[in-house]
């Protein structure tokens, strides 16, 4: 069913929760790294919902007149967990504050709410954003991530940008505040949308794939937009859709349009390819 979220217990190997609330497909899911029971979903229906996966209630609804006006493609929590950044097909990046007193009270209430004991649904809180901009990209923004106090965002414009949102006047939503772009990272041959870059856990490395199967990796500590590694295997020619780092940043996994998954060993980039596909390796 479209718009259904399934929570899998990895120890049991079973689906233990189902969540229904969106009216269309879900483009990204993100667990909060402080309040680990909080799961946020970004949907094609122009909304985001933050769920308490333990009590199975909708804690926050991120939508409405000041929300996204088209499909929501990506979301990410800041390192302190107070802010949620979202992006979508409306060319907008929106920032939501979940650290306010009312938002925290809603989260606490969700932890003790028992649907079986209540004859009313949980009073989901509708959040209003504190920041909106359409000044960074002129096309779909298909990936957004926090980098300390900065935002890293990507569109189908052959580049990734790092920029600083002006949060000095939260809730002043119009006109859009000026944007200070800190760095632009060229991504050649990347006209397609719904392509996700990856940041490692330490926020030192960033990687993305392009239309012809190349993987480009940067060392953010160098403050240079020159790639540290550009790798390409002769058997890969399709669009790379998403990359992800292992917890220790030694391995990169990439997913391609030809239905293959490739593993890159970054400790030895000259040997950096192994295809992972139903027991088949090269």
UniProtKB/TrEMBL annotation:
SMART domains: WD40
Segments annotated as WD repeats: 19-61, 65-106
Protein's UniProt keywords contain Cell wall biogenesis/degradation: no
Keyword Glycoprotein attributed: no
Pfam families in UniProt: WD40
Gene3D superfamilies reported in the protein's UniProt record: YVTN repeat-like/Quinoprotein amine dehydrogenase
Keyword annotations from UniProtKB, A to Z: Repeat, Transcription, Transcription regulation, WD repeat
Family the entry assigns: Belongs to the WD repeat ESC family.
Protein name (record): Uncharacterized protein
């Amino acid at each position: 069913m479209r718009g259904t979220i399934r929570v899998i217990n990895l120890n049991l190997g079973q689906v233990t929760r189902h969540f229904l609330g969106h009216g269309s497909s879900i483009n990204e899911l993100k667990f909060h790294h402080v309040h680990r029971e909080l799961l946020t979903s970004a949907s094609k229906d122009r909304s985001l919902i933050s769920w308490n996966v333990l009590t199975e209630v909708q804690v926050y609804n991120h939508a409405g007149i000041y929300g996204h006006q088209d499909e929501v493609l990506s979301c990410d929590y800041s390192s302190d967990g107070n802010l949620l950044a979202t992006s979508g097909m409306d060319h907008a990046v929106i920032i939501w504050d979940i650290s306010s007193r009312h938002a925290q009270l809603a989260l606490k209430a969700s932890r003790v709410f028992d649907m079986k004991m209540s004859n009313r649904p949980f009073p989901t809180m509708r959040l209003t954003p504190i920041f909106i901009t359409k000044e960074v990209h002129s096309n779909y923004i298909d990936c957004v991530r926090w980098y300390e106090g900065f935002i890293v965002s990507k569109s189908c414009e052959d580049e990734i940008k790092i920029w600083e949102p002006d949060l000095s006047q939260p809730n002043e939503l119009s006109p859009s505040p000026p944007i200070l772009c800190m760095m632009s990272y060229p991504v050649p041959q990347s006209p397609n949308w719904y392509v996700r870059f990856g940041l490692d856990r330490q926020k030192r490395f960033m990687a993305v794939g392009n239309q012809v199967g190349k993987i480009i990796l940067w060392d953010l500590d160098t403050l240079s937009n020159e790639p540290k590694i550009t790798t390409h295997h002769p058997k890969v020619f399709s669009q790379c859709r998403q990359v992800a780092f292992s917890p220790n940043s030694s391995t990169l996994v990439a997913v391609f349009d030809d239905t293959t998954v490739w593993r890159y060993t970054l400790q030895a980039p000259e040997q950096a390819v192994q295809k992972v596909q139903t027991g088949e390796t090269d």
